[in-house]
Amino acid sequence: QSPATEPLDCDHELQVRHTELQLQNQQLRRAETQLQQALNRYESLFHALPLPAMVVDTRGIVHRGNERAAAVFGFRSVAQFENHSLLRLIAIADRSRLMVELAKRPEKPLQTLRHVWIQGSDHSNAVEVDLHLEPLGIDYHADRHVLITMVDQTEHYRQQRQAELLGKVVDDMGLRVAAFDRSGRCLYANRDSRNDAGLGEQEILGLRR
Fold it and tell me: Which value, to the nearest 10 degrees, does the dihedral of the CA atoms of residues 86, 90, 94, 100 take?
């Protein structure tokens, strides 16, 4: 290669390199646009969820929340609980249970934490909820985040406890008590009735007399 052709070769290499950089830049811009579009869709869906929802990190810090969650916590706006700890809004007895779930590995599938008491911002309107925890992928954020949705189960669990208490009272009466529907199917049988039939609770329910 003669000295005269060296500048031409350098110019060609620079042009090739410039073209490669332009292509890489275009790919990066497309990727950024697609990511931003995905995040925008996520935000729209998140705020349209019919359930109270929030995104928290492994320390329990709320990074996103929707209006329904704000209402459950007794706040007028989402901004009042974003970037604050979710733990301060949960009963002390339930805080360690939540932290254990948040600390689980990212690939852990959907988890449900039941019987969690939400005490809210002023502790005046406690509700008992089920928390559903879904790990978010790394495409949402480089750090680990979890989507939490809440289902108010206050009335359901209240009725459940009342039924359990009533069942215990009936069992301790020393009488055989059973209830049937119009077709004769068993709806309820206390302990003595089940013992007489030699069947468990799930076995006797639905049987015809």
Answer: 0
DSSP labels for 130-191?
A: EEEEEEPPTTT-SS-EEEEEEEE-HHHHHHHHHHHHHHHHHHTTTS--EEE-TT-BEEEE-H
- For 16, other C-beta atoms within 10 Å of its C-beta total 10
Q: What is the pLDDT of residues 120-150, one digit of tens each?
A: 777 667 899 999 998 886 555 546 788 999 9
Q: What share of the chain is helix, strand, coil (3-state, %, to 5)?
A: 45, 20, 30
- Report DSSP state, residue 123: S
- Choose among 93, 145, 144, 84: nearest CA to 118: 93
The verdict on pTM exceeding 0.85 is: no
**81, 72 contact by CB (below 8 A):** no
Q: Please give the angle made by the CA atoms of 164, 168 and 171, to the nearest 5 degrees.
A: 135
Report d(CA 177, CA 174) in Å as an integer. 9
Coil, helix or strand for 128?
Answer: strand
> Which tokens is 182 given?
């119009």
